[in-house]
Specification:
The protein has helices at 5-13, 41-54, 88-106, 124-140, 149-155, 182-195, 239-244, 308-321, 370-383, 397-400, and strands at 31-37, 59-62, 78-79, 117-121, 145-148, 170-174, 178-179, 199-201, 206-212, 215-221, 224-233, 253-262, 272-275, 280-284, 290-300, 330-340, 347-350, 356-360. With 417 residues, it is an alpha/beta fold. The protein folds into two domains: 26-77 and 182-251 and 343-416, FAD/NAD(P)-binding domain (3-Layer(bba) Sandwich), CATH 3.50.50; 112-178 and 254-337, D-Amino Acid Oxidase, Chain A, domain 2. Strand 14 (280-284) and strand 15 (290-300) form a beta hairpin. Helix 2 packs parallel to helix 6 (182-195), helix 2 packs across helix 9 (370-383) and helix 3 packs across helix 9.
């Protein structure tokens, strides 16, 4: 089944009776070449690229709930490639290029909207940092543009430019950045993987990882044991818990990050906008809701909900930047479980156990990394060599101290996140 404008028109005129399921609901087999733990964006993308680029199709994606029910469906949908440090910069550049051709490749509407992102700055120091970051982004081969106050005002006249504490002096803009529909991304990768023979197995919680003689041999699940030559973790905020089943302790803390959406309003915010001093980010969805979030809740938790003080802080910051938002009613809020590494950068690497692979520690960057992560992780699993764009995402950097990527400038210690 392929999608096209003609097919949509035909089905609309005939009662939409010709659509079929997007993927199968198979029973798990007793053995696979690769078992992927986690049916979110990264797990599904990994399965897709293993099948599409490496010809490995004897794969099971195991999801304890339903596909796309975790972090890939609980985020603010931002896509960008404006990272500063080597390692992160080339990876997110690779991921953005995959985003730009993703819908055509998957034959699925992920609602990719390259509306641009404005990173506001409010003082001379932040302007200088924006210049350095912009030059780094351009040197990497991506786009960056420094706007002055008037340039920002032309694009976003509704902002509070004369905030007493944080007046807006300008912004660093990346026009190729934007947003995508999070659940559609998961569905597109799921459909693409299923079409190539991958088994997507829902309601199949992994309860143990079998290791014999230092090598992984399979997993225990709620639907029985499954043997596997290779096992790949893609469990986001639950990565530490899943790794513990194999006796591994990961350098990760899981924190709650809240997000919010208002009722639908008329078109107001064209770009994604970030408020540097308040660490606020906001955009407008295709349904008209204003989607925004700010800081972590700053305590370790596996609960997909946050605390009220952070809600209050986020609302104050949002209204300080966009006063008109004060007239909108909040529709809902939610929390995602963020797997935070000490240096704010991810891990795509072998584990100390032969045949067990790690994909975790995405911090704030998980959604925008989805195609890049799946592509690089599939390359690692298939070839046992790191993908060029992810070669610095080594687990060992936290033991040796060599190659740490402190993207947020918070220091390589857990308690500074």
């Amino acid at each position: 089944m392929r999608f096209s404008g003609w097919r949509v028109l035909k089905e609309g005129l005939t009662g939409n009776k010709g659509w079929g399921p997007h993927w199968r609901d198979p029973e798990p087999k007793r053995e696979y070449d690769v078992v992927i733990i986690g049916g979110g964006g990264h797990g599904l993308a990994t399965a897709y690229y293993l099948a599409a680029e490496h010809g490995i199709t004897n794969i099971a994606v195991l999801e304890k709930g339903y596909l796309g029910g975790g972090n890939v469906g609980r985020n603010t949908t931002i896509v960008r490639a404006n990272y500063y440090l080597p390692g992160n910069s080339e990876f997110y550049s690779h991921s953005l290029r995959l985003w730009e051709s993703l819908e055509q490749e998957l034959n699925y509407n992920a609602m990719m909207s390259q509306r641009g992102i404005l990173n506001l700055y409010h003082n001379d120091g932040q302007r200088d940092a924006a210049v350095r970051r912009g030059n780094s982004i351009i040197n990497q081969g991506d786009d960056a543009e420094l706007l002055d106050r008037d340039g920002v005002r032309k694009l976003a006249p509704y902002l509070n430019f004369d905030n007493n504490r944080f007046p807006i002096m300008g912004a660093l803009m990346q026009r190729r950045a934007g947003t995508a529909r999070h659940d559609a991304v998961a569905w597109g990768f799921a459909r693409g993987a299923d079409m190539r023979g991958v088994d997507l197995i829902q309601k199949c919680e992994v309860t143990g990882i079998d290791v014999e003689g230092g090598k992984v041999t399979g997993v225990q699940t709620a639907r029985g044991p499954i043997r596997a030559k290779k096992v790949a973790l893609a469990a986001a905020g639950r990565s530490s818990q899943v790794a513990a089943m194999a006796g591994l302790t990961l350098p990760i803390e899981s924190h709650v990050l809240q997000a919010f959406v208002t009722e639908g309003v008329k078109p107001l915010i064209d770009q994604v906008i970030t408020f540097a001093e308040g660490h606020l980010y906001i955009s407008q969805s295709d349904k008209g809701g204003l989607v925004f979030g700010s800081y972590l809740d700053f305590y370790a938790s596996y609960a997909a909900r946050g605390n009220l003080p952070m809600v209050e802080h986020t609302m104050e910051t949002c209204v300080a930047m966009v006063p008109a938002v004060s007239k909108a009613r909040l529709l809902r809020s939610w929390g995602g479980i963020m797997d935070m590494t000490p240096d704010g950068s991810p891990i795509i690497d072998h584990s100390p156990i032969d045949g067990l692979y790690l994909n975790c520690g995405w911090c704030y960057g998980g959604f925008k990394a989805t195609p890049g992560s799946g592509n690089a992780y599939a390359h690692l699993i298939a070839t046992d060599r790191p993908h060029g764009a992810a070669r610095k995402f080594k687990l060992d950097r936290f033991r040796s101290g060599h190659g740490l990527m402190d993207e947020e400038g918070t220091g390589a210690q857990h308690n500074l996140h």
